[in-house]
Model the fold of this input.
Amino acid sequence: MTPADLSRTVLHAVRRAVDEDALRAPVPARVRVERTRPGGSGDYACAVALQLAGPAALPALEVARILRERVAAEPGIGRVEITGPGFLSFTLDTPADRRGALLDAVREQGLAYGHGDALRGEVIRLHHASEVRAAVTVDAVRRLLTAQGADVRISRDGGGDRAWSRLGVTADARETTPDALAATVRPVPAGATAAELLERLGADATRWGLLRPAGHDRAPLGDDLLVQGEANALFRVRYAHARTRALTRGAAALGFASAPGAGPGEPAARPLLDLLADHPAVLLAAARHRAPDRLARQLEAVAHAFFVLHDTCPPLPAGDEKPSAAHRARLALAEAAGTVLAGGLSLLGIRAPEHL
Done:
């Protein structure tokens, strides 16, 4: 069950409670669920009971009890707890077939895993200054919005910079002059021209350096973006992707392939599975909030979780060990992680090489 699935499940429980007259309150348009914070209970938490307590004229704890009864039995939910003043905390049930279904979805959708049509039919106008960080940010936002079905129109102040094209920024044939409906994207300027950054860092490191920080933060654009080591987040993300591809080649040399229908059950696999399940929601949130930095942080988390799996539960057998069902399942998860990393980097306009 993905966060979007859980949100719909809780919303359905609210509708049922209202239809059954157990709860007299307006049904919200959507229900927000979030990852439980460190030290919290369960996998996800939701504050909908607190939101509905006032309109329902009931204590939040009572609203939470009403909703818990209607959510607890839903498929994919292992446990529902009430915490604090009325938060609902969910522990998801992830049996092997559900894990396998997630990996199958990533394999079938490929680099488009997480793309959707939530914004289909929306025409979104963006405006930016004639400055390299603004141009690259708007380009990444356009990619994210388009991946969710939106029709994006871009305008800018003055003329562009020819060097932008070397950063993957292309002029929109439908560019318009700014109007009252255009949202201005205004990150902290880079403090350098595109040509200067390209000469020193190259296209991929420049884009990562401009997009990884939140727009209101200064973009650190030092030579450490080129360092091939753990301290460089871009290197770790791209190395994780390259390593997943190397695992596939290694498995083929040993005469076996992944088994996406069987999800790995080791505890080390759970964080990576959760991140892959969250990926569609992260992409949609990054698009809605015009925040490519959210996607960059997601890719860093996926890379970290992949390396934990790789080091704890190796996808390839060692020595004279024969390939087992566990190896095939781990390989399927590693390949799914590689697909998500490549797809995410593509949305940021950054290459995902198979060899580093």
The chain has a mean pLDDT of 90. The first strand starts at residue 33 and ends at 35. The chain has three domains: 3-93, 98-115+230-347, 123-225. The longest helix spans residues 325-347.
